[in-house]
Design a protein that fits this description.
Distance between the termini: 35 Å
Structural class: alpha+beta
Strand content: 5-15%
Number of strands: 3
Number of domains: 1
């Protein structure tokens, strides 16, 4: 299958800081975003949930070296990590989320 010449990029964005990394997808399905926003109780939880939705891989592991699942709770529990802040900074630049925000503000 071929994509049009001006199609948005599809490869994940790699965010690195303090020896950690997070890979972010560039878009999501509309229904995924709506469901995530409906379940969020406040703005900070919505931001953690958005990061959990867009993250496809990260370097966080537990004490025994087992990779932590990417969940809203695990994002919130690790919110003090520099890479979390950097990843949130990348999320707000995504054209997909900017367009979703503009559409939401029209309603």
């Amino acid at each position: 299958m071929a994509r049009r010449a001006n199609a948005p990029q599809t490869e994940p964005i790699r965010v690195e800081a303090d020896g950690d990394y997070i890979l972010l997808r560039r878009s999501a399905r509309f229904d995924e975003v709506v469901q995530m926003r409906e379940q969020a109780k406040d703005n900070s939880q919505a931001m953690f949930a958005t990061l959990a939705l867009f993250a496809v891989e990260w370097s966080f592991a537990d004490e025994s070296g087992v990779m932590l699942p990417i969940t809203t709770e695990n994002v919130a529990d690790n919110a003090d990590a520099v890479v979390i802040v950097a990843a949130i900074g990348e999320l707000v630049k995504l054209p997909f989320l900017a367009q979703m925000s503009r559409l939401a503000n029209r309603v």
